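## Example pair
The file below holds two records. Each record gives the amino-acid sequence first, followed by its structure token line.
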Amino acid sequence: MDSADIAIIGGTGFYGMDMLENTHDINADTPYGKTSDAITVGTFNGLKIAFLPRHGKKHSIPPHKINFRANIWALKQLGVRRIITPDAVGSLQENIKPGDFLIPDQFIDLTNARNNTFHDEGEVAHISMAEPFCPELSGIVSESGKSLGCGMHDKGTVVVVQGPRFSSKAESKLYRSWNAQIINMEVSTECILAREAEICYAYLGMVTDYDTFADKTVNVTDVLGVLKENEKNARRLIEDAITKIPESRSCKCGEALKNAVV
């Protein structure tokens, strides 16, 4: 039976993980429809790892059309208990530079009309998102980045917008005034569902550009250029972090539904 303990959900620029051995693909069909693409399961450092490209291997799915529920449900069925996701983000602060990494500990969700719960029929659950990202897993990822000499920021707030468009200058300056650090289009929906599934979730934001507050137009060509330069560092960081993850969990993510169901 297919199984995996750790999953990597690849964001923009991450459509595979070359370090995996003995790989095979699983085409999962869930109660919520199909996953973004086939899930690749393989081994690394003696561990079973699952990899899923969030936007599909050809980046054919825009942020607001991703089937987040199918993705998280399928990983849960594989037995995944921890998710690490590297993804492109824009910076909202001058000291957070393109090429840096930021691991957020909070988000502000500005998305709309997304299916962000498994409990929309029958059983009602009010999940706590006071601390949305797993502190244990996020800490491990942060320490790996620091040990490798990466430009790391180990806490901050990510503003999550609907997409697929980039921000107006007025919007970007508003988000800066909230003391948010980075901006993205996917993480909150995925993070909420991972918490409902009682899966630890850590987000590795790869800073590719300054958002439009900097009076420079954000464009895909520049974003992908910076992302390509830093992709090797992100892969090394994730590989290092995986080797440091303990078998047992000391966080509370695995008890997220306790006292949450009405």
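Second record, same layout:
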Amino acid sequence: MRGAFIIIAACLAALAACGSAQNAGARADENPMTAGKELIVLAAPRAGDPYYADRAEDIFDFHVAYARQIEGRDDVLILTDAETYPDYAKALGEHRVAIAPMDDIWMRDFAPSNAADPVMFRYTAAGQGGGRAGQRDADAVQETLAGIIDEMGLSYRASDLLNDGGNFVEDGAGRAVVSRKFLRDNALNETDARAALKSLAGAEHVAFIEADEQGGLEHADGVVAFVAPNVLVVNSYPEDPDYAAALRADLEAGLPGVVIREIVTPYDASDIHDERFGSACGLYTNMLATPERIYFPQFGVPEDQKALAQMRQWTDKEVVPVRSDTVCPMGGGVRCMSWQTRGDNAKRLLSLLESRRVSPL
């Protein structure tokens, strides 16, 4: 399964908030939330999930390698069920794992977007295969996370607008890129959609783009990535110059003064786990940007070094390579699997480590 929705209060009841604070204080020496850091939250598949059975070991290896790259730079929390908890705890230590099973691994899509000013959209049916059944599944997935968010007292805004987190690429300074699937899903024109996103997510400028593959997820984060305020990295499309020109025109129209950097893109669709979602192999734009660093996918191909060199030329942030070739055939990777949060929300989530280490929910 992949995501779900429930409109819940932006703040937890005071009692739960106090409980979270007490739990966090109990082991504060193990779980500091250092100023300037973000918390990156990952979700393991449930033990025995048939959809991920063939990729379970690959997902585990990716999570462990990714978490080790995050460790010492930002903070990381991996949510597991009781059965997979021991494996993750053995590999990474209990201080980075909590028993809080999610119903899918693509945290980006059904978690709140925009770490600076969080908003939770309603996760769309596309992430669960589409149709009415897909929307029921999407709602169920998101409700599981919403229960944790409610319990831990996280602050955010909730909306019934349909959108996946992978289709909200923001720079943290009032600019966003969204595919036009958002317009179709919500029966909005661009003017009304911009007004809604400004009111809800503080987006002063929004560029609506066509996805490079129509149908399915149509996420903007497989096409573009912000690496600084109003600075975008975009895929190269030498085989489709018309699309590349239209993409640039849409970005420049929606984001006045935007700086666009075109990165090498060795896209590879030779191994696809699920035809509904395609491949993310070779898409360096599916990077994860934080205020101080960029977690950058690597695919074990010759273009990796060129892409790294390009990124290090374009940004003063630390560029941290993360091997993603074992999971990219599933249609995502570094950004897709990551929920970013910071500040009080991050501190409250880290208190999960105290209450969810050894006992299932």
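Notes on the second record: The chain has eleven helices and 15 strands. The mean pLDDT is 88.
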